[in-house]
């Protein structure tokens, strides 16, 4: 086994989780999990509307190649079996057109087209005793994931004729029936009931039956439900009754951002603002993410415990660490010395002075943050103490001022 040194822990975790979920490592799946490919672009490629995958990777080429090289170094140290990887275009006919990853002379050529498979003993036994059923189930799963009713129906009939008692037979029938209804555009009369059905029935079934590859199957249903939700009648007591919630499940972060920003007064709701912050962070828009995070704490700090969506904090390792450090400080001081959660952005500004250059203040911004931002900018620019601003910050919030001095 190769010695693993200095590998990114988050990347290793993503690779490990990918192998656990799907029993293999596919480079394209890693890029999707690291949000280095937008899912909407991936769908367009799978449907043949983008000629080759590298067309949507060129804008971030160096970072992507670095992650792929690091991941390859790691997976080669594991007991996995390498094999060529091919992906077929999603169609509704018998076409088996193979999608193109990149030109043969591309820097991505040898990095995207090899997958590493985990060989389980159970799979070996199934292959030995029941090769025909195993092949049919594999083709049936791929047809369902690819949303191909014609091939899925053919393979379903083949499974019925070969082994009607197979454990995949009943789940496949339910998944196929749902797919037919969705693709035949059966109208959604009750979006609340459809949401319940997807969350409580179809998604758990797909997750169990499709072995960690349910995303491509379920995205059709989430897009369909999103198209039927009227965002102009958003009810803040039902935070999931917004198209952005559907897009989050896929996840299609650009669609989340678009649906919230296009909703009239959408950012005045804590649940939507928290979801917007998450989407901005996941899509790598750091400046807008920090601005949105500040807006959330300035307007809805008391809503943090009430909202169920804390992922915009918890899925960012650095932010999560800062958040817990801030909470620890609040617990360690007397109540009259506590900053209050609305001043968490001030904590971040002290820890990351560079954000002072692009955070915009408004009527919800605490006076202490405004003064701290002015002070930080002045002292960064001049390299000297801004005495008057220091006095003003000390008067407005002495605890923040003392923390600022300690950080220098």
Can you tell me about this structure?
There is one protein chain. With 408 residues, the chain is mainly α. Among the domains are: 1-119, no CATH class; 316-407, no CATH class. Helices cover 59% and strands 2% of the residues. The chain contains 20 helices and three strands. It has helices spanning 9-22, 27-33, 39-46, 61-75, 121-129, 131-145, 149-162, 169-183, 191-209, 214-228, 243-249, 253-261, 270-282, 286-300, 311-314, 317-332, 344-351, 367-382, 387-396, 398-407; strands spanning 24-25, 81-84, 114-117. A three-stranded antiparallel β-sheet has the order 1-3-2. Helix 13 (270-282) packs antiparallel against helix 14 and helix 17 (344-351) packs parallel to helix 18. It is elongated.
Distance between the termini: 46 Å
How are the strands ordered across the major sheet?
1-3-2
Number of strands: 3
Q: Estimate the helix proportion, in percent.
A: 55-70%
Order of helices and strands: HEHHHEEHHHHHHHHHHHHHHHH
Instruction: Please identify the oligomeric state.
Output: single chain
Coarse structural class: mainly alpha
The portion of residues forming beta strands comes to under 5%
Largest sheet: 3 strands, antiparallel
Low-confidence stretches: 121-129
Q: What's the rounded overall pLDDT mean? A: 89
Give the overall form: elongated
Distinct helical segment count: 20
Radius of gyration: 25 Å
